[in-house]
Amino acid sequence: MSKFRSGVLYGQELMDLYADAKQNGYALPGVNAVGTSSVNGIIEAAAKVQSPVIVQLSFGGGHFYAGKSLKNDTMQASAAGCISAAMHVHQVAEMYGVPVVLHTDHCSLENIVWIDRLLDFQEAYYAKHGKPLFSSHMLDLSEETLEKNVGICEKYLTRMSKIDIGLEIELGITGGEEDGVDNSKVDASKLYTHPSEVYYAFDKLSKISPNFSIAAAFGNVHGVYRPGNVKLSVEILENSQRYAEEQLDAAGTKPVSFVFHGGSGSSPEDIAKSIEYGVIKMNLDTDMQWAFNCGVRDYYQEYRDYVAEQIGNPEGADLPNKKYYDPRKLLRAGEAAFVERLEQSFADLNCIGRNK
Ligand SMILES: [Zn+2]
């Protein structure tokens, strides 16, 4: 008997999963997908380690899923691609026997029509099917003032909670560059959130629904850089948790559910500490992109003489090479390396066998 239901989790099931993670000291990998190869790879790895997993799409990933040639001036392709990816996950997750959290990644105020479109679609979908497509969405309004950020998040959480969707918010700024958003030159003080800011958001959102999580900046960055360039202050998470416990007079309860962005390249010690302080989700993109790249690169290196021409290889000048240049071969090589790398992340996050 498995602990969680296979398929896409939402509403109370999502909150139960995060509560279980916090209680048992593990976090779930939130892995960015850009097509069926990455979606299937993510779920395949989760099936291997018998744990739930988070499949997430950025607006760029959604656009790519729908097709790069499509116009996207009002985020119509980003929304369509995300809906398409979600339908795919709903169709196959149960077959893999994997509980899946479906999520969308960073959305700034400038792109919020993307989330509006997804919510419009899901409100109609919910009316018909009694469930949403996505488990949760993220709003990253960290460029706005704290009051404006949380104020808009309150409105969206109100709307989302009516259709069993959770919200992830961002406080402070994750450094580095991802998906065309460049935060590599922002003021260093913005990279570290203050515990009182975390509590301010926690207090406001709690009044609407408990189904939310907070990506608080603690010096984390998107991308992988040379060691020494990144100064993580995991203590910010601990201090925020203590601060919230004091305000709520609830010592030792870790009331805040934290999300760790820019997890790629982090040390196992920092990951373990962040989990101890209440991180229940760690985002992974850069390291997974690298793994997929390595799989494809190694395939081409190994079969260089079999993919250079349609006919003729070292075993015979007239032999056809169709079975070597079939795109499934190189995509599968990418998937296999991706799956192997993700299994390592599940282990780093203490997330092995969590659905048993
Ligand atoms: Zn992020």
UniProtKB/TrEMBL annotation:
Domain of life: Bacteria
Coiled coil regions, renumbered to chain: none
InterPro entries: Aldolase_TIM (IPR013785), FBA_II (IPR000771), Fruct_bisP_bact (IPR006411)
Binding site for Zn(2+) 2: 140, 170
Keywords: Glycolysis, Lyase, Metal-binding, Zinc
Gene3D superfamilies to which the protein is assigned, alphabetical: Aldolase class I (3.20.20.70)
Needed cofactors: Zn(2+)
Free-text remark on how the cofactor is bound: Binds 2 Zn(2+) ions per subunit. One is catalytic and the other provides a structural contribution.
UniProt similarity note: Belongs to the class II fructose-bisphosphate aldolase family.
NCBIfam families associated with the record: cbbA (TIGR00167), FruBisAldo_II_A (TIGR01520), PRK09197.1 (NF006628)
Descriptive protein name: Fructose-bisphosphate aldolase
Lineage: Bacteria, Pseudomonadati, Pseudomonadota, Gammaproteobacteria, Thiotrichales
